[in-house]
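Researcher: Sequence recovery benchmark, item below. Answer with residues only.
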């Protein structure tokens, strides 16, 4: 029976593909559901209609000159799971919008597997994320350039205008700003983008109090604006259109405004199987309808499209390395075990994998007397009825809050007394011991360069390592390690590379110093809740791990059981680094050894920024669009 269905499906796919009998549809919209509607060639082909892909497509088609095709796996969706801001969790709970991937068992996490979340819809992960709108610090972006030496144009100064172009900042309502003590500074923002950074029309009073409570611990830095590039305690906006009070994302901010342009085409439900290479020049791509077995790179249901100028890979941190490897660009040994002919032996592809680990200590205030609080939405019927009424009438009130708007982003020396010793240990480690045994020497050199940079950052106050999210209520918020030291891999499954998801291995805690850094983050978290004069009256109880956990060994055991290596920020797998440091793309985001092929998405980040990644992806994409259109900036613009 299954076989019969397969045969029927193949026949159907063949009929659809042999579309010569069909008159070509005259479509007002240039969004195609089927490969047969696509032209034979475009100036640019973009693989992946996600956060970066749609941003670049919008910019490249803006002047009406270049033709662009975006090929996206998912569909256009108007689902309420995407548009709803309340709570910030609806997108990531809707499995129809997400890839179905589990990591390989994590050997240092008692063999636990981790759900790998990434958006599978037009808009990509910007359609499903929690809408926290933050940047890393200036040093995070200067670090990227530092791997290329002092002449790099990847600096905070150079990237700032792209952050400003990327988002349209709409300040919070004056009354809310005053009553909650929100600070912001518009000089770090722009107001032209179709993607909005907005604010809810309500804040819980407990949020302001919990921001203020960081003053109870000496040496805490406070920052007036989340976009200033300085670590500290600060307020930040939400990826939300403040007029509609709906998620603002790459689809609404870039696709929708480009959709009427005759030079912009998007084909949905289509999986790119490989980049076509003539010698070492990228000349196009092949794609198949989602659901059809690929079998190999090309088959009867596959469509080939030519790129006259460039192919731009924007499939995200998990899938961009997969597409490169399937195209013969990657480590020779891996590719030959999958019977893929190596076109460019590029060992860095799929290596250097990073994500932000989430830690799971849990506190509850037994005497939290500040109301209303987020818990009141569930515990106080009068309050929740009011919240529902103002939302229904005016789209205002607590239901306009996504996941909150305040957090601490703290440098290591301000949370730990042993920053110097941890930094020295990191600098003098035998770095090769912490990567897979067969790691290429160039990748190892890149890892070493990163660890030396982190050793400096661990001692100074310019890079945030510890992120405590403020809940505003009785239950504690998320805890994140912003600069993990372990590096994982994302490689094709060599058993059946074209029909399987890549093998995602976080290699969590493979560098043992991660556990020490995380232990100090958790010790600081305990200090903030339990040993702080400004939180004392709330009388915190520690639910996890429990006050008996104090030594490094105990913390490590707790972390092995509980840490999640992902905040859904996969990055680093097509790193922008010199080739001798295991890089995959150069400073203009061009793949080494290939002409006409760039990568533009979270995978190019050589090291994670100390903040959730979406705003950085938008800024990188804006800069990439300029690199594609105008080339490398001259010295004056750096
Ligand atoms: C659940 C979740 C919560 C998050 N929360 C936040 C947050 O609150 N704040 C924040 O700043 N960041 C957050 N992030 C991270 C942020 O959203 C991502 O870093 C960012 O959107 C990644 O952009 P990208 O362009 O690299 O990839 P994506 O936006 O994921 O785009 C990749 C696109 O390529 C498509 N694709 C992949 N393979 C193929 C193929 N072979 N053929 C065709 N198309 C393909 C995908 O379907 C997808 O649309 C979150 C992410 C997730 C998943
Ligand atoms: C994890 O899996 C490996 C391989 O299957 C096994 O050898 C090991 O004992 C397991 N470890 C734990 C803690 O279960
Ligand atoms: C946009 O920013 C510019 C420059 O800062 C400012 O002059 C202008 O008033 C702003 N427009 C809006 C609508 O806020
Ligand atoms: C706001 O700041 C003022 C001055 O520092 C302080 O008096 C007030 O309590 C703060 N309000 C809140 C809600 O934290
Ligand atoms: C970092 O900040 C802490 C706390 O404010 C301070 O004690 C320390 O001297 C600072 N370190 C450096 C290198 O500036
Ligand atoms: C932050 O804002 C406050 C109030 O506007 C101001 O007094 C202070 O100088 C600002 N701090 C910085 C670092 O800009
Ligand atoms: C796109 O075209 C349609 C039909 O011509 C029009 O109604 C719509 O306003 C246009 N949208 C944009 C964003 O220009
Ligand atoms: C490949 O490139 C060569 C040399 O530039 C050219 O002659 C040939 O036509 C190209 N082949 C295809 C299929 O594009
Ligand atoms: C690779 O080729 C060998 C020999 O032809 C074959 O046994 C093996 O199944 C192939 N593997 C894949 C993934 O195609
Ligand atoms: C419930 O909420 C209402 C409205 O905010 C408030 O007036 C009331 O005091 C709350 N009740 C309790 C028991 O907290
Ligand atoms: C909605 O807004 C209108 C106009 O500001 C106001 O009169 C009305 O009371 C609001 N409705 C609710 C339920 O708050
Ligand atoms: C690799 O793919 C094969 C074939 O689909 C599958 O059986 C196997 O479980 C995959 N390997 C892993 C580690 O997921
Ligand atoms: C509980 O909180 C109230 C209000 O802040 C305070 O007056 C009281 O002392 C607290 N109780 C305890 C036992 O700390």
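Model:
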């Amino acid at each position: 029976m299954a076989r019969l269905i397969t045969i029927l499906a193949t026949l159907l796919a063949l009929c659809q593909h042999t579309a010569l009998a069909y008159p070509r549809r005259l479509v007002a919209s240039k969004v195609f559901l089927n490969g047969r509607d696509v032209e034979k060639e475009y100036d640019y082909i973009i693989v992946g209609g996600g956060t970066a892909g749609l941003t670049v497509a919008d910019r490249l088609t803006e002047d009406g000159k270049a033709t662009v095709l975006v090929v996206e796996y998912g569909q256009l969706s108007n689902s309420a799971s995407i548009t709803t801001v309340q709570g910030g969790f609806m997108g990531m709970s809707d499995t129809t919008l997400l890839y179905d991937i589990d990591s390989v068992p994590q050997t240092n996490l008692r063999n636990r597997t981790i759900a790998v979340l990434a958006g599978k819809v037009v808009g990509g992960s910007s359609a499903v994320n929690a809408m926290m709108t933050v940047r890393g610090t200036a040093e995070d972006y200067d670090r990227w350039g530092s791997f290329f030496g002092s002449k790099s144009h990847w600096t905070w100064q150079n990237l700032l205008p792209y952050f400003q172009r990327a988002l349209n900042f709409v300040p919070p309502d004056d009354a809310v700003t005053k009553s909650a003590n929100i600070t912001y500074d518009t000089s770090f923002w722009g107001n032209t983008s179709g993607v909005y950074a907005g604010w809810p029309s309500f804040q819980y009073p407990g949020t302001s109090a919990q921001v203020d409570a960081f003053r109870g611990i000496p040496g805490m830095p406070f920052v007036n604006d989340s976009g200033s590039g300085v670590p500290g305690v600060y307020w930040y906006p939400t990826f939300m259109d403040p007029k509609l009070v709906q998620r603002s994302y790459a689809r609404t901010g870039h696709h929708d405004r480009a959709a009427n342009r005759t030079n912009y085409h998007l084909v949905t439900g289509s999986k790119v199987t490989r980049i076509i290479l003539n010698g070492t020049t990228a000349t196009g791509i092949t794609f198949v309808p989602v659901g059809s077995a690929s079998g190999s790179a090309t088959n009867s249901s596959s469509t080939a499209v030519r790129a006259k100028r460039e192919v731009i890979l924007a499939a995200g941190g998990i899938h961009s390395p997969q597409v490169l490897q399937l195209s013969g660009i990657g480590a020779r040994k891996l590719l030959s075990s999958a019977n893929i002919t190596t076109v460019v032996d590029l060992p860095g592809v799929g290596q250097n994998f990073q994500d932000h680990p989430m830690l799971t200590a849990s506190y509850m205030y037994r005497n939290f007397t500040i109301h209303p609080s987020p818990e009141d939405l569930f515990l106080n019927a009068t309050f929740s009825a009011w919240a529902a009424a103002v939302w229904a009438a005016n789209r205002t009130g607590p239901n306009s809050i996504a996941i909150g708007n305040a957090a601490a982003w703290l440098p290591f020396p301000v949370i730990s007394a042993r920053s110097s010793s941890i930094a020295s240990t990191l600098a003098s480690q035998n770095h090769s011991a912490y990567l897979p045994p067969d790691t290429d020497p160039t990748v190892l050199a890149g890892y070493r360069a990163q660890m030396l940079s982190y050793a400096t950052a661990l001692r100074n106050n310019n890079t945030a390592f510890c992120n405590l999210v403020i809940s505003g209520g009785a239950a504690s918020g998320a805890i994140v390690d912003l600069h993990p030291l372990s590096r994982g891999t994302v490689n094709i499954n060599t058993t059946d590379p074209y029909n399987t998801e890549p093998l995602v291995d976080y290699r969590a805690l493979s560098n043992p110093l991660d556990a020490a850094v995380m232990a100090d983050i958790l010790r600081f978290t305990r200090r903030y809740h339990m040993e702080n004069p400004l939180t004392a009256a709330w009388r915190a109880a520690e639910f996890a791990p429990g006050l008996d956990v104090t030594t490094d060994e105990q913390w490590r055991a707790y972390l092995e059981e509980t840490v999640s290596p992902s905040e859904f920020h996969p990055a680093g797998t097509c790193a922008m680094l010199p080739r001798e440091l295991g890089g995959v793309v150069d400073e203009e985001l061009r793949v080494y050894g290939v002409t006409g092929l760039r990568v533009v998405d979270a995978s190019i980040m050589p090291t994670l920024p100390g903040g959730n990644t979406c705003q950085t992806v938008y800024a990188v994409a804006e800069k990439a669009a300029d690199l594609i259109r105008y080339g490398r900036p001259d010295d004056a613009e750096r």
